Amino acid sequence: MIIHFTQNIKHLRKLRGMTMKEVAKALGVDYSSVVKYEHGKSYPKVENLLLLGEILDVNLHDLFYHDFTTGPPPTATPNTSEDQSTLIRVIADLQREIDELRTDIIERDDPEDIALIKAERDRFIKDNPELAQQLGISSDQEPT
User: Fold this and answer.
1) Whole-angstrom Cα distance, residue 142 to residue 138?
2) This prediction's pTM
């Protein structure tokens, strides 16, 4: 499965007549962050991914997996702002919980916890090799 995320952001942004600075302002991030997104150097946090989908009027599956340079997907379904707002709140809450748990585990420096984190990371890499590569996740990294 080919991931078209970076080229889609640029294509859809231009199609909507937006500059990178306008997208950055709408996301609440620096201009340099949007440059990195469009060049595949980094990816937005989950809550910003949802907001980006709303800004570009595209669902996240299509944003990642459909090549918009060839035209719209056959079953394009725009996101509703109510759905997006709910998802953003839920994901932001989950992200905070994950960050708190990760900090707690790392601070304890428990070898069993570290081994569990590494196993989950390796499973993610195995299940999502292309996304892991694009995100710069590799099995030789120490959990942070």
Assistant:
1) 9
2) 0.53
